[in-house]
Amino acid sequence: MTTDIDTLATALYVRTDDLLRAQPWLAPWRPKVGLVPSLTDAELVTLAVMQALLGHTSEARWLRYANKHLGHLFRYLPQQSGYNKRLRNATGLIKNIIRILATDTTLWTDDVWVIDSTPVECGRSRETTKRSDLAGWAQYGYCASHSRYFWGLRLHLVCTLGGLPVAFALTGAKADERQTLLGIFEADPSLVHDRPGQTLIADKNYYGKAFERDLAEAGVELLRPARKNEPERPGARLFKPLRQTIESINQTFKAQLDLERHGGRTPAGVIVRVLQRVLALTTAIWHNDKSEQPVMRSLTAYDH
Length: 304
Hints:
The protein is of the alpha/beta class. It has a domain at 109-262: Nucleotidyltransferase, domain 5, CATH 3.30.420. It is 46% helix and 15% strand. The chain is built from eleven helices and six strands. It has helices at 5-22, 41-53, 59-69, 80-89, 91-103, 126-131, 177-187, 190-193, 209-217, 236-256, 267-290, and strands spanning 112-123, 139-143, 148-160, 165-172, 198-201, 220-223. Strands 1, 2, 3, 4, 5 and 6 form a six-stranded mixed beta sheet that branches. α1 packs antiparallel against α2 (41-53), α2 (41-53) crosses α11 and α5 packs parallel to α11 (267-290).
């Protein structure tokens, strides 16, 4: 199997189309009587993934590019407003496809995960913080990794060492990382119940006796660096090099998938654009896995 953007798009379209034929209830709701969309839901998902992989942050410019260069893949392309509306309505479908593709990889059963959160900036001017539809959810926060303040959200990611997103959450910038992680596991108990003895590598912010007890009761072993005035924790020397993996994954989202240039102006718009990028990375890893590529998280073959 070759690795290029057309091959990936074809594989994703076929996988999504087969899924929707077998489980039609996963498709976005629409009236039984009415016009049949000229762009199918499988084509919509494929178009969204290609947009993220090819680095087009503007939907209008992306559709102009697609009309000129992707006519061999899509017989019909909507206008920008129609594409935006269809994409927001497909949030549930995108979440389901992320999980289905992830479980269809050899990385899904990895017994070591890494966890961290990364900023999703949503605005910079003071007026934006007052008038934006995101006000109240988006907050001022601080990113210690890059020594900067920002106004926006945080994407919390649980990934395998190979970079495959296993679980994720989008919260305000000041949300407690520990409570968010426990909330992720509560929302999807099968993640930890089906794999006892899972190891989770985190940074110093994931601390606390009650927090670690909750993880242990769920069958998760937490590895993190010792905080100030704490004794050296077991295994610190072994997992320290692996800790950089999550920073590398975050950089993939930011540098290659333009996470902070999402362009969302409403909660629904930001959510679907973040999901669009999570799906793009998951799809690339899924395709690399199926084609037996040496580096699962590489997007180089799909960015042009």
